[in-house]
Amino acid sequence: MSIKKFSIIASIALAALLSFGCCSEVKYGAFEPKAEQGDSNPNAYAGYIAAMRRYNGFQMAYEWQRANPKLVAESVKKEVLKEFVKSPEAADKLLAKIGTSYDGDPVALTQIAAVTQLVMTPKCPKAPKCRKLWVDALKRARAKTDDGYVKVFCDQQLRICE
Amino acid sequence: MNTSTRRNFLKGAAAIGAFNLVPAKVLWGATAPSNQLTRALIGFGCIAHSANHLPFGGSRLVGLTDCYAPRVEAGLKAAEGRWGKIKGYKNFIELLNDPGVDIVHICTPPHWHGVQSVMAAKAGKDIWCEKPMTRTVGEGKRVMEVVKAQKRMFRLNTWFRFQDNFYGFGTPVEPIRQIVENGLLGNGPIKCVFGEGQGFSWKFGWSGRVQDKIQKIPAGLDWDMWLGPAPWKPYSDHRFGTSFRGYWDYDSGGLGDMAQHYLDPLQYLLCKDETSPVKIDYKGLPQHPEAVGSFDRFTLTYDDGTEVILDGDVSLRDEPLLRGSNGLCVYKRGNGSKTLRIREADGTWWSDEKVIATLKSLPKPKKQQTDFIDSCRNRKPFALNESNGFRSSSMFNLAIVAWRLGRGFEFDPVTLRAKNDPAADRFLYQEDMMREPWRKEMFG
Q: What's the order of all strands across the beta sheet hosting B279-283?
């Protein structure tokens, strides 16, 4: 095989390897631009490492957002979130989706964080009532689990809204 | 031995004796090993290998520590060639208690920076801290207070306000500051757009996993110590190593990781070292509560109307870096130019010669203190210290709060609190979520 042919094949292989890891990143410039002469760029490698790491089969948050923008945006609309603080049962049902130790449904977790913000909304007349319902639900979720992660997750929400 | 030989021998011996009586400082100056200031590294992950930590020649490396034993071994081995045998401390507390250490280099993840800076200051050490300065505004305020009270010297490990080209800009920051400081952009507010169009990318690849698996803690890793003040959560290899950046508990993705490199020089060239934005707006998708995602845009507005826009979705790619109130615009070097580019409000571009001549005619900014070892010896605050470093870290820490809230808020740069917004304050100040004993060590 000639050197020229080898170089072409190697370039294609490298490009394929990199693009396999980064096609959804190109738009957002996750890889650092090529440093100009005189620039010192201490993190030039960082995007590559991040791209390579995600192939253990788990989706990264920004990929998940960009793959599901409509789902993510609509999941936190006020009229959707309000349903979760209409009754303790509705709140409990959402909080049950925290799962155990990192396996929670990402839409549900995003909604939980958004409900915590909703009940803290400044100037919202119904916020105090919803806030009490939500705080009580978080405390119930915390109390009924042995999972250390779930407890901490609930604590992190409670410190914002309690 | 005959008289002449003995006399010569005694003369020689006397000369050697006299030589040894001359202080090393006179012979070798400050670089005599016994006169060099000493440093030790807290944390020996990726960043500790970089130029300003392991190999830095301005002070003598005497030791290091890490809560992952293989890194300590690797560090001691890596140090040997240049520094000989150095000490591997059991933990950073033993390191701080060593009177033989003058300066500590904090190379741990951001959730540790505040605690370790405060503890180091109280232990009488000068501090060279990795960026970001701290993870929250509350921690930054505390570091600033304690460093000042203990009269320590503090610097951050970023330098673009005083050296090197400003990332994709192709020029250092000084000429841009000259333009701003000398009023070439008018007397009103300046609009600044910061994003890929200017060569700054926000590295959304530094993201966390929306779901994950718990894994076995590797042998030799003290996971509890690694977590430190952060909430206890089970071990996953994606929360450890360089990808810790993707989790709110420890950092804030590419914004937390890179923003101090980008925004500190911006704060400097905008002459905003003593204040903070009063309004923060956010545009983008809601965030997962564990894993850092992406943003479309942050707008940080100062009291005088100056706006800094962080352009995440690259929709403002063609905007200049700076647009003055008089319409004059500053762009990065490009299109074959020899320097930064300036365009009039009517669209006319300045020639390179005009830019260069104008910059030559303008007074230069005040000289900066850029030698940290000199700072430590002579107690002169460094160019990027705990005060202006707090302000530049607050720029992005405020943006991060808006990011997590999913909305904008207002901030008081004097009280350092959100205005009428308890939910925002709960993110600005997270002392209550810190684990003990680290919360007590930091806040008392």
A: B341-343, B329-331, B322-323, B191-195, B307-311, B297-301, B279-283, B409-412, B417-418
Question: CA distances (Å), B217 to each of B198, B233, B236, B237, in order?
Answer: 42, 12, 8, 8
Domain boundaries, chain A: 3-59, 68-161
What token pair was written down for A17? Answer: 């390897």
Which two three-digit tokens encode residue A40? 């010192």
pLDDT in tens, B109-167: 999 999 999 999 999 999 999 999 999 999 999 999 999 999 999 999 999 999 999 98
pLDDT tens per residue across span B175-197: 999 999 999 999 999 999 998 88
Query: Which residue among A32, A109, A114 places its CB closest to the CB of B290?
Result: A109
Report long-range pairs for B115-119 (Cβ below 8 Å, ≥24 apart): B115/B139, B115/B228, B115/B229, B115/B434, B115/B438, B115/B441, B115/B442, B116/B42, B116/B92, B117/B143, B117/B146, B117/B147, B117/B154, B118/B142, B118/B143, B118/B146, B118/B441, B118/B442, B119/B92, B119/B93, B119/B441, B119/B442
Best probe of the B interface among A60, A75, A146, A151, by most B CBs < 10 A, is A60
Tell the CATH superfamily of the B10-156 domain.
NAD(P)-binding Rossmann-like Domain (3.40.50.720)
Q: Which three-class secondary structure state does DSSP give residue B238? A: helix
Domain B167-370+386-443 has CATH 3.30.360.10: yes
Tell me which residue in B212, B254, B286 faces A58 most closely, judged by beta carbons: B212
Q: Say how many Å lie between the first and final Cα of chain A, rounded.
A: 70
Most A CBs within 10 Å, among B203, B237, B296, to test the A interface: B203
Contact B233 A152 (CB under 8 A): yes
User: Average of pLDDT values for B398-410?
Assistant: 97
pLDDT one-digit tens code per residue, B313-335: 999 999 999 999 999 999 999 88
Residue type for position B224: D
- Which chain B residues are closer than 8 Å to A101 by Cβ? 214, 234
Which residues, 6+ apart, have CB-to-CB distance to B382 below 8 Å? B153, B154, B155, B369, B370, B372, B375
DSSP for B131-199? SSS-SSHHHHHHHHHHHHHTT--EEES--TTTSS--GGGSS-SHHHHHHHHTTTT-SS--EEEEEGGGT
Gyration radius from chain B CA atoms: 25
